[in-house]
Automatic annotation (TrEMBL):
<dbReference type="Pfam" id="PF05164">
    <property type="entry name" value="ZapA"/>
</dbReference>
<dbReference type="GO" id="GO:0000917">
    <property type="term" value="P:division septum assembly"/>
</dbReference>
<dbReference type="GO" id="GO:0030428">
    <property type="term" value="C:cell septum"/>
</dbReference>
<keyword id="KW-0175">Coiled coil</keyword>
<keyword id="KW-0132">Cell division</keyword>
<keyword id="KW-0131">Cell cycle</keyword>
<protein>
    <submittedName>
        <fullName>Cell division protein ZapA</fullName>
    </submittedName>
</protein>
<dbReference type="GO" id="GO:0032153">
    <property type="term" value="C:cell division site"/>
</dbReference>
<dbReference type="GO" id="GO:0005829">
    <property type="term" value="C:cytosol"/>
</dbReference>
<feature type="coiled-coil region">
    <location>
        <begin position="62"/>
        <end position="168"/>
    </location>
</feature>
<dbReference type="GO" id="GO:0000921">
    <property type="term" value="P:septin ring assembly"/>
</dbReference>
<dbReference type="InterPro" id="IPR007838">
    <property type="entry name" value="Cell_div_ZapA-like"/>
</dbReference>
<dbReference type="GO" id="GO:0043093">
    <property type="term" value="P:FtsZ-dependent cytokinesis"/>
</dbReference>
Amino acid sequence: MNIVTVKINGIEYNLKGDEQEEYLHKVASYVDKKVKNIMDNNAKLSTSSAAILSAVNVVDDMLKRQKEYEELVNKVNQMEKAQKSYMEQIDSLKKQLKHMEEYNDELQLKLKSNSNNQHLEQKKQDIEKLTKELELTQETAQKYIKENAELKAENKEYKFQVQSAKYKMIDLQHRLVENQINLAKEKKQKHPFLNDSTK
């Protein structure tokens, strides 16, 4: 466990944590700026009042980040569902395409072996119709494949945003804990008979 001496609003505190010293200094610097900013805006505030307002601001930030995180998770889930649906549609179109190609091959064979001109003409029309259907099916399949690729890219970006939001939320939780430690320190200074459990 690391123990780091930091200054918050001109007062030294000993912070304990499993995190790296650099991180603990970063947390202390963040809290120091919050408290100084609040006290600069209202010089009549006591240090403990400023610490409480800082804690309120940090919690507000954390809850907003948590809401953003939950919204991103919901978007990712929706994108994954849409991606799954597109994949199923693509598979279905591939099966239809294969079936039509087989049927087309069958008609081509029948055309070659059939000497009836009228029957041949009808089969030609059937082939033309099937060819158009095949082209439409291929276009639709390509469209779904393209949309699926776009969904994958968006899904990857949302996952990255979710991970970033998660780290931000963890960082805010650490800041909240440090604020609570600072508040306890302030109380100890006002009431020296209380035990200081953070040193």
